[in-house]
Amino acid sequence: xxxxxxxxxxxxxxxxxxxxxxxxxxxxxxxxxxxxxxxxxxxxxxxxxxxxxxxxxxxxxxxxxxxxxxxxxxxxxxxxxxxxxxxxxxxxxxxxxxxxxxxxxxxxxxxxxxxxxxxxxxxxxxxxxxxxxxxxxxxxxxxxxxxxxxxxxxxxxxxxxxxxxxxxxxxxxxxxxxxxxxxxxxxxxxxxxxxxxxxxxxxxxxxxxxxxxxxxxxxxxxxxxxxxxxxxxxxxxxxxxxxxxxxxxxxxxxxxxxxxxxxxxxxxxxxxxxxxxxxxxxxxxxxxxxxxxxxxxxxxxxxxxxxxxxxxxxxxxxxxxxxxxxxxxxxxxxxxxxxxxxxxxxxxxxxxxxxxxxxxxxxxxxxxxxxxxxxxxxxxxxxxxxxxxxxxxxxxxxxxxxxxxxxxxxxxxxxxxxxxxxxxxxxxxxxxxxxxxxxxxxxxxxxxxxxxxxxxxxxxxxxxxxxxxxxxxxxxxxxxxxxxxxxxxxxxxxxxxxxxxxxxxxxxxxxxxxxxxxxx
Length: 520
Description:
Layout: H1 2-14, H2 17-29, H3 35-43, H4 48-61, H5 64-77, H6 79-84, H7 101-115, H8 118-130, H9 136-144, H10 149-163, H11 165-178, H12 180-185, H13 196-201, H14 232-239, E1 256-262, H15 275-288, E2 291-297, H16 301-312, E3 323-328, E4 331-332, E5 335-337, E6 348-350, H17 352-357, E7 371-376, H18 410-417, E8 434-438, E9 448-449, E10 453-454, H19 455-467, H20 473-486, E11 498-500
Parallel strand pairs: 1-2, 1-3, 3-7, 7-8
Antiparallel strand pairs: 4-5, 5-6, 8-11, 9-10
Helix pairs in contact: 1-4, 2-5, 3-4, 7-10, 7-11, 8-11, 9-10, 15-19, 19-20
């Protein structure tokens, strides 16, 4: 509690709104704050500084355990803020004296050489280079002087051990962040999370949310039903249809990537209750399908655009065979709303920008790879239903009821009418291999249960778990639409999801496989 008193002024002046909202969620999950406490901070105060002041005073008033919980959550949520405020880092688990990191690497050397995949190996090289533990020449020695995976792995771990304790410690930390499954398989011990101290003090505390920086495909558990896995026989038979099936990379050679953006809290107070459940369910589903999930919460329109653009430039896309982009927020026709949207101050992310960032010109790493886009948001105005609606409510925007196809602009019409000649330069389609699933049809609203989450995500997760082992993506989406037809949100309202802007030229199968299956 004394620590919070000391940093109170600095915290109020420096904490950003996203970090503030994240801390509220963390403290609510640990049962330090109630739902009423969260509403008091967010709804009774309008400025960032007043919200920050209200939060820290509220936590201090709750006593020592609550204060300790906030400090621990701050370390996990915003390490830079934690250090800027002068808080002291807890001792690192790697500060052990009984067993050094060098000895750890020597102990796991054989298993590392045998098990590490090439994508993970290359990422470890990049991570250690960024930490200045390896030079560019060191990277070249591993990748260019060695030709097979095991030799590269052996060269890397021996090189790091030779550099000493700091380099060995860095490699272990990078391995935990980069490939948690490998880390655990090799028998390395997980460091205690800073929030573990909170859990020991707060009875009944819930599991801390996964980091928004990214989630490993091994971190899925606790789902209500299990994902059915594809049999090897089914996969082998399907892959024989090469002309009709999108290529699937071998698990050892791929790093499947997904982007998940969830907006929950809005400056105007129209929070999306139940969206946290959508985020959790969607993340677990993608992870169980083998995707590394990059998660973001409560972004503005500009921040959503930047997140999608950064994702499109991620070097790991070269090692993925497909991507998912999932965005959940309030919406209007043609746009997804940012958290600052309010009357007279629009904060929007145009849906078209998703396709632009992922097209062949801006994202050549995804050429000929399926790109699946899922959007949970309204495309029209609130109809006043008692069920919470993913729309702007009282916002003034309203899209036209009828929209007609526009004529081609003159310069494009001229090109269409011109004679077609063979071009020696190989051309590719600018937008191809994409498919979108939108939660509702144009000009209509999208419904969400306050505790169970949106109907789109509920249906989609269930359909994928039951049928992804045998159905391609088009059929999975058809079954989601069929579910909306058979089971409307309530007796008085109707919602129909829609497949949109599909340019898939082949069938895309996900082929779910066991998480611990050894790479072939």
